[in-house]
Specification:
alpha/beta, Nucleotidyltransferase, domain 5, 5 strands, about 10% strand, about 40% helix
């Protein structure tokens, strides 16, 4: 990709993936401007992440570091597009939330208004949950618990100051953040308890990935 872009545009090119670019965007322009140790979690159709340590994005030896969406959180769980089962993104992404509509069993399921929507989206689940739909509240709680526990585990290998939640689900703001934070603290190793923040991106109405990618040119 780098060589193709340089051939077409006749300029030196730097390439990174969208989740890494979003992390850089948060550090340069967003809610992580005061941080040098943080992890951005993008909650879209999948779950992406960008890990920043000492102010530097971690790429690993081959450029593929930070695929936290493919941590397996449920043994032999939902089938993931990567070919494995139980990956975080099959539960905590927007598509994962929609899958939960059909896969979670609940006594409140049949009375939920989510079934009156022909093609429900994650936003519909969160909107209904905020308006008192008990089944949708169960889905949100289920999603927050899985994500919060995953963040507790992620903390043990890089000890971030904060997790920055970005993407459609994160736009639910404090409603979702508090639930995720509660689950994270319950699952956190004792030495890390009450030391890690969960912040919501301030770049939802902008393109964090584009901003971050642009900053690579001069950053």
């Amino acid at each position: 990709m780098k060589h193709l872009a340089e051939k077409i545009f006749k300029h030196q090119t730097t390439v990174t993936n969208d989740a890494n670019a979003a992390a850089i965007g948060e550090m340069v322009y967003g809610t992580a401007k005061d941080l040098k140790e943080f992890i951005t979690i993008t909650l879209g159709t999948g779950v992406g992440s960008g890990i920043v340590s000492n102010g530097q994005l971690i790429y690993g030896h081959d450029g593929f570091a930070g695929e936290l969406g493919h941590f397996r959180v449920i043994p032999n769980g939902r089938q993931c597009n990567c070919g494995r089962k139980g990956c975080l993104e099959t539960y905590a992404s927007s598509t994962g939330v929609v899958r939960s509509i059909n896969e979670i069993e609940s006594k409140n399921k049949t009375s939920s208004k989510i079934h009156t929507i022909s093609s429900p989206k994650a936003k519909d689940v969160f909107d209904l949950a905020k308006n008192g739909d008990l089944f949708c509240q169960e889905i949100v709680d289920f999603t927050a618990e899985i994500l919060g526990n995953a963040l507790a585990d992620f903390t043990t290998f890089s000890s971030p100051k904060a997790f920055i939640l970005f993407g459609g689900i994160a736009q639910s703001g404090e409603y979702f953040r508090k639930k995720v934070n509660s689950a994270m603290e319950k699952g956190m190793l004792s030495i890390y308890k009450n030391t890690v923040e969960i912040r919501i991106s301030s770049l939802h109405d902008k393109n964090a990935a584009v901003l971050g990618a642009s900053s690579l040119v001069w950053g």
